[in-house]
Amino acid sequence: MPLYAQLQARQSSNTPIRVGVIGAGKFGSMFLSQAAIIPGIHVVGIADLNVGQAKSNLANSHWPQEKYSASSLDNAFKHGTTHVGDDVEALVMHPGVEIIVEATGSPVVAVDHILMAFANGKHVVSATVELDSFAGLAVAREAKSAGVIYSMAYGDQPAMTCELVDWARTCGFKVAAAGRGHKWHPDFRFSTPDTVWDHWGLTLEQAKAGRLNPKMFNSFLDGTKPAIESSAIANACGLEVPANGLTYPLGSIDDISKLMRPRSEGGVLEKSGMVEVINGLKEDASEFDYNIRMGVFVVVEAETEYQRKCFAEYKVTTDDTGRYMCQYKRWHLIGLELGMSVANVALRGEATGVAQEFIGDVVAVAKRDLKVGEILDGEGGYTVAGQLRPSEISLSQKMLPLGLTGGLLMKRDVARDTVLTYQDVLLDESLNAVKLRRSLEV
């Protein structure tokens, strides 16, 4: 039965999927805007440190006040409304909640929330993909041990890429490459929250009107988020990552099939079966008209002459050999599409992407000269950016995971554009996030 029909059936039987949302920022708000109109889904509660801002975001997402004015979680559960508060533990432990959406964007905090959910028998859909980049496999193991489902968030590019890769392999194709698009220039890796909007292509007024977080958007611009999402794709799909980080080859959508093949065949890949990010900017910094900046792709190889003939017969755009073709989605809608994850987890018992291996890692690189005694400000900030590396390299060289850099104290000076190591910082080994990461390093 289609997911939507199953949702309608849950609505008709008054047994909706009952969801708790942690974090009502941009991603959470986008999901909430849709959850209000999707049948068969009831958001029982929202937990956010800033309750006033969370309620303001609900109003901005067109929720009538009476829908989020429940005085308690019990009241919300009973009457089909939503309670908004700051008590994460109460939300996670409430017996009426079956799925937790973790949308804080803070990987260290997210680990605590997720493990608490597992301990209380809750499935988790994580919009904090930063976690999947450095400890996703460990979290997946914890979920399996607890007998629950852990899933990446559909609407984010990793889960959507996983879907394309699964399509390709289920159809019998060999996957040559998969990944996402981006707007990229090498200088962007030093961007800060002060410079992000000029590079991004929005005015400060537009950013404020959209309630956009400059640090989060800067994470996309400086290459951290593309590295994070590429790592998540690699680990969920069993794809390799470039030895020295993403290369961002320039091209339009019609160029992808030519670019995403091994160098030995005229492409840019070290070998077949890798993740990569396509740059939508031309050399003169203008955008390709038909680019995949906001989308995802998979490139498949026709391994038989019959497959190649079929590509030609059905007018498929391929490389010059006729062997490589690209399937893609040009847009991703982030939290607006999260209903797919919630429905798949609750109704089909399936994750929309989850780490199966630990192949790709995201390491911290200094944006400027860093000095002893400074405090790192994590993803998208002023001090470090993230770059993709094979985990066998990052682990052997004790490179510092980007996801752990929020609030760390520098113990040694590190020069601009240098990869940080564990020896450079003071790390709290008691944190659950650190413990999970360490479990992958043995």
What does it look like?
This protein has 442 residues and is an alpha/beta fold. The protein folds into 3 domains: 3-155 and 335-348, NAD(P)-binding Rossmann-like Domain (Rossmann fold, 3-Layer(aba) Sandwich); 158-184 and 223-332, no CATH class; 361-439, Antifreeze-like/N-acetylneuraminic acid synthase C-terminal domain (Type Iii Antifreeze Protein Isoform Hplc 12). It is 36% helix and 18% strand. It is built from 17 helices and 15 strands. It has helices at residues 3-12, 26-35, 51-60, 73-79, 88-93, 107-119, 129-146, 157-170, 196-200, 204-209, 214-221, 224-237, 256-259, 305-313, 339-348, 391-396, 432-439; strands at residues 17-22, 41-47, 83-85, 99-102, 123-126, 150-152, 174-182, 274-279, 296-301, 324-329, 360-366, 375-377, 384-390, 406-410, 425-426. The protein has a 6-stranded parallel β-sheet with strand order 3-2-1-4-5-6, with helices on both faces. Helix 2 (26-35) links the parallel strand 1 (17-22) and strand 2 (41-47). Helix 1 (3-12) crosses helix 15 (339-348), helix 6 packs parallel to helix 7 and helix 7 (129-146) runs parallel beside helix 12 (224-237). It is globular, with a radius of gyration of 22 Å. The relative contact order is 0.14. The mean pLDDT is 96.
